[in-house]
Amino acid sequence: MSKNVKHLVTVAVLVVIGSIVTYFLLTTIYTLPLAASAEAGPIDTLFNVQFILISFLFALIIVFMGYAIVVFRRKPDEEGEGDYFHGNATLEIVWTIVPLIIVIALGIWAATILAEVTEAKPNEMRVNVIGRQWSWLFSYPEIEEIGLSDQLILPVNRTIVLQMTTDDVLHSFWVPEFRVKQDLVPGKVTTLRITPTIIGDYKIRCAEICGFDHSNMLADISVVSEEDFDTWVEEQSVGLADLSQEERGEKWATEYGCIGCHSSDGSQLAGPTWLGLFGRNELMEDGQTVIVDENYIRKSILDPDSQIVSGFQPGLMSALGDFGDRFNDDETEMLSNEGLAVDIIEDIIAYINTLQE
Amino acid sequence: MVTFFSLGLVRGLIGQIIGFVTGYGLVAGIQTARGADFNQDLAVMLGAFIGVIGFLLFAGVLTDWIKWTVGKETPIHHGPPKYRPAWTRYFSVDKNHKVIGIQYTVTAILVLLIGGLLAMIFRMELTYPGMQFLNPDQYNTLFSAHGIIMIVSILLGVGGMLNYLVPLMIGAQDMAFPRLNAFSFWVAIPAAVMLIIGVIVGGWDTGWVGYPTLSTTSQKIGTQFFILGFYIVGFSSIAGSINVLVTTFTMRSPGMSLFRMPIFVWGALAASLIQFTATQTVGVALILVTLERALGMGFFNPAGGGDPLLYQHLFWFYSHPVVYVFVLPGLGVISELLPVFSRKPLFGYKWIALSSVAIALVGFLVWGHHMFVSGMDNSLRVPFMMATLLVAVPTGVKFFSWVGTMWGGKLTFETPMLFTLGAISVFLIGGLTGPILATVPTDLHLHDSYWIVGHFHATMFGGFVFPFFAALYFWFPKVTGRMYNETLGKLHFWLMLPAFWLMSLGQMRIGLQGMRRRIADYDPDLGIADTQFLITIAGLVIAWSVFIMLFNLVRSARKGTVASPNPWNSRSPEWQIPSPAPEMNYDQPPVVVGEPYDYGLAGSTYVQVLPASTGD
Questions:
Q1: What is this structure's pTM?
Q2: Does the interface predicted TM-score (ipTM) exceed 0.85?
Q3: Per-residue pLDDT tens for B186-219?
Q4: Strand A125-132 to strand A160-166: parallel, antiparallel, or no bridges (unpaired)?
Q5: Which distant-in-sequence residues (6+ apart) come within 8 Å of A306 by Cβ?
Q6: B343/A82 Cβ within 8 A
Q7: Substitution target from A5, A60, A65 for chain B, most B beta carbons within 10 A
Q8: How far is A350 from chain B (nearest CA, A)?
Q9: Rounded-to-integer distance, Cα B260 and Cα A340, Å
C-alpha cells in the first residue's frame, strides 16, 4: 500500500503541473476573436472556466495514463500477471457523484448567463433582418428615415433586437466578435440580442449551409458612435421620389438581392460581376461572344437561363422565381400607393451603367 | 466468366440497374403519354425503390423467404459453396456470421477509402484561402457526400465487429436469424451505390443533415439520391440490431450471466438498443423530404403549411443517439483490449457495462442541443443543456475505469494496445471539448463552427476509428490465422496519432477564431490560413498511414507468419478455439466457469471449451 501512496503522491504533483501547462498551451492555441459586445463578457468568462476544467481533466487522465505506461510497463525480464484487483466501489461512487455535481453546477451557472444574454434590456432598438441566398437585408422599423440597407450600421453601447426571417432556406446570423448566433428559419421570426461595445467594422457570416454560395453570404456591419449613427440616419432620409434613376437602381439591386450573386467591385460571386459589365464582351457557355447592352441585361433578368456566361452555373437565378412578374407587381403597387411611375429594370440598367472600371 | 456472373454482388447490381430503369422509365413513360412535365424526383424515387428490390431479388437475399411462401424447406448450407471456388462465398449471399462480418468489415474499409478520398480533395481546396481548383458546387457535394458516406462506413464497420465477434464471444454457433443477417448487410450495398450515383449525377449541397427547405427546394437531383440512399441504409441498421439483441439475450453459453459477458458485448447491446429504437424517426424524416420533393406535399416548407424545424427534431432524435451507436462498440473494444495487454482485471466491470447503457439512455434526451440556435426557447434550451451535460458522467466513469485497469498492471505495447491507448487520448480530446458545446452560451459562439468539426472528428476517431483499427489488428490472427507485421503496425500508429491530434486541435482553433463549417472558401482576414495549411498536411499523413495499414493487412493475410491459437493470451472464448474459427465456432456451447477478466488470479479460467471437430 505504501508503494501505491508513493505513486499517487507523484501523480498528484504531476497532475497539478500538467494542468497548469495544459491551461497555458490551451489558451495560447485557443484564442477567441476580439470581444466586441456586452454579451461576449459573461460568455468569455464561461469559456475560460471551461478551459480550466478541460485543462485539469485532460491532465488528470493523461498523467495517470502516462504514468501507468512508464511505471507499469512489463520489464524485459518480468514474468507473470499484473496486480489482481477488480475495482473499488467507493472510488466509482466518488467519480460518479463529483462530476455529477460539477456538471449540474456548470449547467445552472450557464443557464443564468443565458438568461442574462437573452433577456430584454432597456432602450432597445429593433432591426429587421432578412436572409436570402446569398445576401443580407436590414431595415429599421423604429426609424422612418431608413429604408432597406445591405449593410448593418449600429450605434455603440445600445442593445439591438434583431428580428430575423428568410423566404428561401435556413441561414444563420453570426458575428464572431459578438459571440452569439441565431438561425433564420423560413416561416418564422427568430430573435437575437446584441449590444456592440467597440466601434469598428465587422462581418456577418452566414453559419448555416444555404446552398451554392454559402461561403460568400457575408454582410458588412459597422458599429459607430451615437453621433455618427444620427448623421447616417439623416443622410438616409431621402424619399424614393428624390432619388436619381441610378440611385434607385442601386436600391433595387439591394432590395431584390441582386447583390447576393453580382458584385459591384469585380469580386467573383455566384453570378458575373457588374463592374464594367456594360459594353463588355462576354464569352457564353455555347461558345458565342456577346457584347453586353441593355437588351442583353433585360433578357438576362427576365429569362436567366437563356444566356449563361461561360464558367457560371445555370439554374441558380431562375430558382429564385420570376423577377419580371415581381417587378411588374411592385411597379403597379408603387404607382397606386405613391403615384410614382418607375421601371425597375431600366433603373437597374442605369445603375449597372455607372459601374465602369 | 460464368463464375463472375454467378456472384451475388454482380447479379444484385444488375438487378438494381434493371429495377431502377424500370421505375424511372415507368414514371417517364406515363408522364410523356399524359403530356405532363417530367417529374424527375418522382422517377428517381420509384426507380430507387424498385432498384433496391431488384438488387435483393437478383442477389438472392430474398430467395429463402420466397420459397417459404410456398412451403418449401430451405435448410442452411454450411461451409463454402459446393460447385464454385471457396472465395466466391464472400461475394454472394452467405448466412455464416463470420462471412457476413468479413463482408461488412471489408465493405466498411472500401467505403471509408471513398469517403476519405472525398475529404482529402476538399481538404486540399482549403489549404489556402481563395478557390484553388474546385467550384463551390463541387465543394458542397464533396463535403456532403463525405459526411454521409463516412457514416455508412462506420455503420458497416460497427456491423462487421458486432457480427463477427458477438456470436463468438457469447459462445454461440451463429446469429439468431442468419437470413435476416444477410439481408442487413446486402441491403446496405444498393444504398451505398445510390449515394455514389448521387455524387456522379451532379451531387447535392445540403450537407449530410439534409435540412429543409434547402433539401426540399434544391434543384439538384443528387439530393433525391442522397435522401433515398440514406433512408435505405436505415433498414440495414434496424434489421442488424434485432439480430444482435436476440442473439445476445437468447443464445449465450451456459453460465454466462449478463455480467459475465465479455465487455464488448455490452457495448454491442447498448448500440443495438439505440439502432433498434431510434432509426425509424430519421427514416420518417427522410421519406417526408422525398415525398415533398416528388409530390409537393408540404411537410416542411412553410409555403405549403409545413415547418422546417419539424425535420430537425425528427432527424436529431436519431442522429444524436446514432453517434453513440458509432462509439459504444469502439469503447467496448477499448475495455476489451486494455485488460489483455495490462494483464489485469477490468476495473469496475459493472460500472463500465452499465455506463454504456446509461449513455445510450441519456443519449435519447439530448437531441435538442443540435438546435440550440434554431430558434428554440430558453425553457427548452436549458433542459436539453442539462441532459447533455449528464452524458459527461457515465463517459467519465469509463475514462477513470480505464486508468484503474492500467494501474498496477504489466503493460505491453503491441499495435492493438497502441491503438487502444491512442483511442483513449483522442476520445479524451473529443469528450472534453463536448461540455463547452453543451452549455448554451458558449455554444452560441461555437455552433456550426469548425470547433464542432474538430470535436466531432475527435469523438469519431477516438470512439470508432482508432478502436476499429485496434480491433482489426487484434482479431486479424483470429480471422486469417496469420499475424500482421508489427513494425508496419507501429509505423501506422505513430504517423496517425500525432497527425490526428494536430488536425483536431487545429480545426477547433480555427473554429474558435471564426471559421464556419461547410464553407468552400474562407476569409484570409480571420488569420487562420497557417493553421489550415497544417490541417491539410495532417490530413494527408492520416490518409497515408491508413494505406500503410491496408498494405500490411492485405500482405499479411497471405504471407504473414502463422499465428498461434491465442497469441494475446486472452481469456475470451473466441481465442480458445483454432484460428480461423471453424465454420460452426463451437461443437458444443462453451461452459462459463469464472469471471471474464480475472487476469492475475492463479488457476482461474473463464470458459471451458471443447475443441470443435474440423470436418464440415
A1: 0.92
A2: yes
A3: 999 999 999 999 999 999 999 999 999 999 999 8
A4: parallel
A5: A299, A300
A6: yes
A7: A65
A8: 31
A9: 85
